[in-house]
Design a protein that fits this description.
Blueprint (H helix, E strand, L loop, with lengths): L4 E6 L3 H11 L5 E7 L2 H11 L3 E5 L7 H11 L4 E6 L4 H9 L4 E4 L7 H9 L7 H12 L14 H11 L4 H8 L3 H15 L4 H10 L7
Parallel strand pairs: 1-2, 1-3, 3-4, 4-5
Helix pairs in contact: 2-3, 3-4, 4-6, 6-10, 7-9, 7-10, 8-9
């Protein structure tokens, strides 16, 4: 039996919240536990409701979604956050993901893709979006990269997986490449997130760039 996912919706527009509820209600394992209309309310409701997943609008009154995401992830790093927006402004989306969000959904994109995407988010199996990857490259192109971090505690296998994640491979592709099970890949990813105190695959890629793992890629 699949475990239920507790979801909170954060958006200041009632129609947008209703639309998201309609989509989420199509999946029996998704359980909407609450709603919030501002960034501050989102932070408060997270503490009260302890959702597994938050759908967070970027443009909110009083505290925008990026800042609310940063505050929530600093206190509750295990809560997954997906930004939901009408704009595909890569700067805002990249900042949100740097602040800990696991991914993003565009409101005008086909809604049939939402549920598979959110399930992949919950399984830590969403490959890095190409525009986001390009933004990472641009951010670090003018920085001196550390050639190698000999002090990190990563195993050889974890370093391999870190590099493959940073190159945009999914869990299934990593499993095939390394000839190990997807379950083993997930366990290694879980260890990577814990050891490096990171929240998502983009932050793993950022770490890989910063520490020179991709210098020969």
């Amino acid at each position: 039996m699949e475990s239920h996912v507790r979801i909170m919706i954060v958006d200041d527009h009632p129609m947008a919240r209703e639309g998201m509820k309609d989509i989420l209600n199509e999946e029996k394992t998704f359980n909407i536990v609450g709603e919030a209309t501002t960034g501050k309310e989102a932070v408060e409701q997270t503490e009260a409701l302890m959702p597994d997943l938050i759908l967070m609008d970027i443009n909110l009154p009083d505290l925008n979604g990026m800042e609310a995401t940063r505050l929530i992830k600093s206190k509750y790093p295990y809560v997954k956050i997906v930004m939901v927006t009408v704009s595909d402004d890569i700067v805002d989306l990249f900042e949100s993901i740097k602040n800990g969000a696991q991914g993003y959904l565009l409101k005008h994109v086909e809604h049939d893709s939402w549920i598979p995407y959110l399930k992949a988010i919950m399984n830590d199996d969403v490959q890095i979006d190409k525009p986001i990857a390009k933004q990472i490259l641009q951010e670090f192109s003018n920085h001196h990269l550390i050639a190698e971090n000999k002090r990190d505690s990563l195993s050889t296998r974890e370093r391999e997986i870190l590099t493959l994640v940073a190159n945009g491979l999914t869990n299934k592709e990593i499993s095939f490449r390394l000839e190990i099970s997807e379950y083993t890949v997930k366990n290694h990813l879980k260890n990577l997130f814990q050891k490096l105190h990171l929240n998502n695959r983009v932050q793993l890629a950022k770490y890989a760039y910063e520490h020179g793992y991709l210098r020969d890629s």
